[in-house]
Amino acid sequence: MKNKRVVITGGSGAIGKALAKALLGQGAKVLITDLKDEDLQTAKSELASEQLFTFRADVTKETEVAKYVQYAVDKMGGIDVFYNNAGIEGKVSPLDDYPLDVFDQLVNVNIKGVYYGLRHVFPVMKKNKDGGSIIITSSVAGLMGTPNVLPYVTSKHAVIGMMKSAALEGAPHKIRVNTVNPSPVDNRMMRSLEEGFAPGAGAEAKKGFEQSIPLQRYATNEDVAKLMLFLGGDDSSFITGTVNPVDGGMTA
What is the pTM of this model? Predict the structure, then answer.
């Protein structure tokens, strides 16, 4: 990944930071973008690299997506790899009682935010001689149903369809597009979901999730980042339009 110009949305989150650390360690230039300045500053302090840039943006607003893409071009000269990673979990609630404002926000972040990213990064990558690689963060929730998180499951199915169409449109320009589909990952998002599924008994919920995974553990942030790193690099140059679980055998 040496000298690759990389953008990561949701870059101050657990997976985003693990990915940025790995990329910087391989000599990439990295722009991370996220919603809160304080989270970006914390990530910048932790990663401590002159090759790291930050930009605050709300991925639900197309004008702000256009701004982070332009900032990446201004600072790095272009974009070679785009990790379309920002996402939220929403709430745990039956479908007929799910708060509509939460549903709308989840769709705005997890679907529209991903689309806006594709819409504005594609023209930049088309200018590259060697195209580029785009990795969208989906989930095992994009491959199966789970009760009481219908909006989240819907959004993660949606971005798989988005990826497949984008991969076909990108191929003539050497732009590759793939999804990464993690199982439960041991980070803040799963703490939120565990508490949602079993209020006051999150630890028990975690045990139940772990038992559904053949390897009997959650993924680490680094497990996911390693697959993302591969899909962003030249070793995956003939891989596009694919769904890539990193799930300990969960979808088997």
Answer: 0.94
Degrees to nearest 5, angle at CA 9 with 115 and 104? 50
Read off the pLDDT of residues 15-74 as tens digits, 9 standing for 90 and up. 999 999 999 999 999 999 999 999 999 999 999 999 999 999 999 999 999 999 999 999
Catalytic one of 98, 116, 152, 218:
152
Domain span holding position 164? 5-185+220-246
Q: Supply the DSSP symbol for 219.
A: B
Catalogue the E-assigned strands of the chain.
Answer: 5-9, 29-34, 52-56, 81-84, 132-137, 175-182, 243-246
In this structure, are residues 58 and 64 in contact, taking their beta carbons and an 8 Å threshold? yes
**218 included as an active-site residue:** no
Residue 204 forms part of a structural domain: no
Q: Give CA–CA dist 148/159, Å, rounded.
A: 20
Q: For the domain that residue 157 is a member of, what is the CATH number?
A: 3.40.50.720
- Decide if 15 contacts 185 (C-beta within 8 A): yes
